[in-house]
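TASK: fixed-backbone design
INPUT:
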């Protein structure tokens, strides 16, 4: 059980990045019968994404954010782990989680990723597996995966819609798929679904977002997030502090020598 907890903690860079950059829980169970409602407006995938970007502050506000740092409290399987994340737009993402007084680090850059987990016997920094890197490297962009997606080589499509949500499927140039469930009233992301690798095994990673708040920079971010790892393990994360455009030394993303 301890190794499972440590494995989840080592994977939290993706969690922390997603919590600040939501831009859809496995698909919801069919709801009970309810009165018929009017169908949603027929919007294209591009129109839905644009409305989402407007909802989180607009492209102009996002373009002015060059760095973001946050602090959070993570609850996983009855254990608490404080977490810190820093992002420099297009350069790197670094997350540190503390467990039993020891730091677990995950770091993504535009060139690769690395991690360090002394509690699991990996006292030295080691390169990140490709599957984990590809699943989380989109976190190095402050605006998230949907912002300026075409310039990053990604494509989008309207996968489905019902009377309350639109689901946008985004595929990166590395063929990593993400599904964003977007609320039809607020146009904020309620859920994101992707496939990731944990301890060498593929898992469906489902992230639910809530408690969206506007920061001083005008960028709206979710302060609460619940994650589900293939129905096997869950964790929750509550953001306690967010700072925009703080000076961050890019050297923090470099993998230290053993």
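OUTPUT:
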């Amino acid at each position: 059980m301890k190794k499972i907890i440590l494995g989840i903690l080592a994977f939290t860079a993706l969690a922390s990045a997603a919590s600040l950059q939501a831009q859809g829980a496995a698909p919801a169970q069919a709801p009970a019968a309810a009165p018929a409602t009017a169908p949603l407006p027929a919007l294209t995938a591009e129109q839905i994404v644009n409305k989402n970007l407007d909802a989180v502050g607009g492209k102009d506000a996002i373009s002015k954010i060059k760095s973001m740092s946050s602090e959070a409290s993570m609850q996983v399987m009855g254990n608490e782990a404080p977490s810190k994340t820093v992002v420099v737009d297009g350069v790197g993402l670094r997350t540190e989680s503390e467990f039993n007084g020891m730091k677990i680090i995950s770091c993504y850059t535009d060139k690769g990723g690395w991690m360090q987990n002394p509690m699991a016997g990996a006292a030295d920094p080691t390169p990140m597996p490709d599957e984990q890197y590809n699943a989380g490297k989109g976190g190095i962009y402050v605006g998230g995966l949907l912002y300026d997606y075409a310039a990053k080589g990604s494509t989008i499509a309207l996968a489905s819609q019902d009377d309350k949500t639109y689901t946008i499927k985004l595929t990166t140039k590395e063929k990593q798929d993400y599904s964003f469930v977007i609320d039809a009233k607020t146009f904020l992301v309620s859920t994101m679904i992707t496939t990731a690798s944990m301890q060498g095994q593929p898992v469906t990673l489902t992230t639910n977002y809530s408690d969206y708040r506007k920061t001083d920079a005008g960028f709206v971010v979710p302060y609460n997030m619940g994650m589900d790892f293939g129905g096997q393990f869950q964790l929750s994360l509550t953001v306690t502090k967010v700072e925009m455009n703080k000076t961050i030394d890019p050297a923090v993303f470099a993998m230290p020598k053993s």
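COMMENT: Residues 24 and 158 are 13 Å apart (CA to CA).
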